[in-house]
Amino acid sequence: MEGIDNMSNSSLVNYTKLSPNRGNYINGVRHDGRTSAIKKITIHHMACNGTLEAIGEAFAKQSRQASSNYAIDSNGRVAMYVEEKDRSWCSGNAENDNQAITIEVANDGGAPNWHVSDKALAKLIELCVDICKRNNIEKLNFTGDKNGNLTMHKYFQATACPGPYLESKFAYIADEVNKRLNPPAPTPQKQEYISYKVQKGDSWWQIAQNKLGDGNRYMELVRFNGYSAPPVIHPGDIVKIPCTNTAPQPAPQYRTHTVKANDSYWALAEKYLGKGIRWTEIKALNGNKDVIHPGDVLKIPN
């Protein structure tokens, strides 16, 4: 691999044997390089279950007059035979080969279907993504003819290459590559809770009553906030209210009363609600606290 500019080639390569069959002939002299920017990917099949080494030896012979930029074997290993900066001799069409990165894929099944292993297909998609990213190809467009930028050998020569199996996968390959090149924007996560600032006189029971519609669900709030038992809360503390049930229940309408000496739930129920027996309503609205003291601010139902 000496002398290869790895920044311009795929990091997925496991084996390298550079072929002399590359570049363009100008006035009878072979020159490395391309006559066009890289715009396409052309996929071929080996028509055998060739090893990377065996294909490399074949492409190393000048008499073979053939090569490809990359090859993938049935185990998903990748070889490079012609650097991306150079045109390979693969498609029998100079215009296409000057624009395309060419890839040979091994077949783990023979004629007539020329099957390709799952490992080889997965690596082919990965290699195509890598090629597109480094060559600023924003999207693979498979049109079913040579006008797209994902092409087949058969579009340029009278051949069955890349074989029926790979041919049937071209739309899938383009879709999978494009998903990875342009992943969908993540769906915004729904907020799981709203924040509630504790007010004077609040209790876990009261917050559950106001926000969840049932004070008896106060332990749900306690656990949702990371506690196993209800801790003391103070005005200004933040309590998380789960969104699942927060159709924010309208808070009960109430007045307030500052407790004075000799006040009792019964006396307050008689004063405000007209019947002392309704004292339990006041107690429930205030978190079921058993003892009240002068200076406490109590909520009184309307």
Task: Describe the fold and architecture.
The chain is an alpha/beta fold. The chain has three domains: 176 residues, 3-Layer(aba) Sandwich (Lysozyme-like); 66 residues, Roll (Membrane-bound Lytic Murein Transglycosylase D, Chain A), CATH 3.10.350; 51 residues, LysM domain (Membrane-bound Lytic Murein Transglycosylase D, Chain A), CATH 3.10.350. It has nine helices and twelve strands. Strands 1-6-5-7-4-8 form a six-stranded mixed sheet, with helices on both faces. The chain is rod-shaped. The termini are far apart. The N terminus is likely disordered.
Shape: rod-shaped
And the CATH topology of the largest domain? Answer: Lysozyme-like
In the CATH scheme, the class of the largest domain would be Alpha Beta
- Give the uncertain stretches in residue-range form: 1-7, 245-251
Structural class: alpha/beta
How many alpha or pi helices?
A: 9
Q: What percentage of amino acids are in beta strands?
A: 15-25%
Rg (C-alpha, Å): 37 Å
Largest sheet features: 6 strands, mixed
Integer count of domains: 3
Order of helices and strands: EEEEHEEHEHEHHEHHEEHHE
> What would the average pLDDT be, to the nearest integer?
90
Q: Tell me how many strands there are.
A: 12
CATH homologous superfamily designation of the largest domain: Peptidoglycan recognition protein-like
Helix proportion: 25-40%
Measured distance between first and last alpha carbons:
86 Å
CATH architecture field of the largest domain: 3-Layer(aba) Sandwich
What spatial order of strands do you see in the largest sheet?
A: 1-6-5-7-4-8
